[in-house]
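Appendix C reproduces, verbatim, an entry submitted by the partner laboratory led by Prof. M.T., so that reviewers can inspect both the input and the predicted structure.
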Amino acid sequence: MSEAIRIENVSVIVKGKEILKNINLVLREGNFLGIVGPNAGGKTTLIRTILGLNRPSTGTVRVFGKNPEALHEKESIFGYLPQHMNIDPQFPASALDIVLMGRYREAGLFRWPGRADRKKAVACMAMLGVENLQHVQYHQLSGGQQQRISIARALAGEPKILILDEPSTGIDVVGQEDFYHLLKGIKKKMNLTILMVSHDIGAVTAYVDEISCLNISLYYHGNPLGALNDKVLTSLYGKNVDLLMHSDICDKCERLR
């Protein structure tokens, strides 16, 4: 597999404060990476740097061998779902209208989406199990439905890399498990590379191919089970790490000892 993302010696300093410190990471094409760590640990800053929205203070980021800032102008590489979607809740748009926004790069900003664009948008909705919501107003959808519509919008642009920042916020534990299974299926079907940010290591370990543990510095990158040891967890979450772990993940920790 070729390299999708390569990060070398990246630090980000904002107003004299070190947000990221000497990050080194390689993600190969077709893998599902979970980035976990506490709030204010630099996770969102890292993905914004990968997207080319932040410039590193030191070091380099390459996406398929290129500077990410240059990719926005020429190629549809990224599908991005931020933590908070800036969509006016009263904006008069159907779920399908929102997904079609993801086709603007392909269709052209000032061209009305055509039949092929609509077909692609509906296909993305179907992958996420929300094709029956095409004509429902976006603001009438539940939080979980809006989340799936937003991901369908990100997929509609036919990206090579899907980046999700805390996508399961507001979804219960059972819903999270279904959601992560769904992402694995989409990854395989679309041959995607997925990078997903979460503060909850217990929720993602069983679903990703590899995991990065970030709290300003990168404390671990590799097989998910390798992150479940006291040293890494304490570095991420402090002395009260056991309060943050699901019981099934704690069982895995015991088996690794």
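The radius of gyration is 19 Å. Additional entries are available on request from the coordinating office.
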